[in-house]
């Protein structure tokens, strides 16, 4: 079972999140938190795999809570951030703070479920709409020189990296490249290993920080 904590200051939102996640046979919502401070406190003493964290909460917002969880909790649960279109500063900060996934509150419930599962596996999932938002934000930042590790990627792996950075799922990348979805998963795993990255979220950050999106 994927032991999950749901953190949101709005009771109807917590109820809806619990309803969606508890309906899955492999996910258990073990507790709830009404703000970031409570989420951090419970993450410290509970055995959790994933925290689903609203980025806008009173007392301690989700971004501050995310940083506390990733920096001070051992072992730290993976964090899936819930966000909306009007929180660019939270989105950018949370990417750098190590969120394992991003899901918009108005996205399909299945996307949240998959994000929780991906986070529990040490992977990441970003809502395609969030990725497009991140693209505009990263476009405002001067790119860093591409590191030497980029030369380790094959042309196909570089192509997969660019597709991930555009927000495509494995299935969408498979259709674009006319290959099997399993092949795409293998390429993603190799990119992560070669570049020393942990999740797809970090692949997006890497691609935009180093301006390697390209035109392919």
Automatic annotation (TrEMBL):
The modification 4-aspartylphosphate is found at residue 54. Keywords: DNA-binding, Phosphoprotein, Transcription, Transcription regulation. Residues 3-120 form the Response regulatory domain. Pfam families: GerE, Response_reg. CDD domains: LuxR_C_like, REC_NarL-like. Residues 146-211 form the HTH luxR-type domain. The keyword Transcription applies. SUPFAM superfamilies: C-terminal effector domain of the bipartite response regulators, CheY-like. InterPro entries: CheY-like_superfamily, NreC/VraR/RcsB-like_REC, Sig_transdc_resp-reg_C-effctor, Sig_transdc_resp-reg_receiver, Tscrpt_reg_LuxR_C, WalR-like. This is Response regulator transcription factor. It comes from Lentzea sokolovensis.
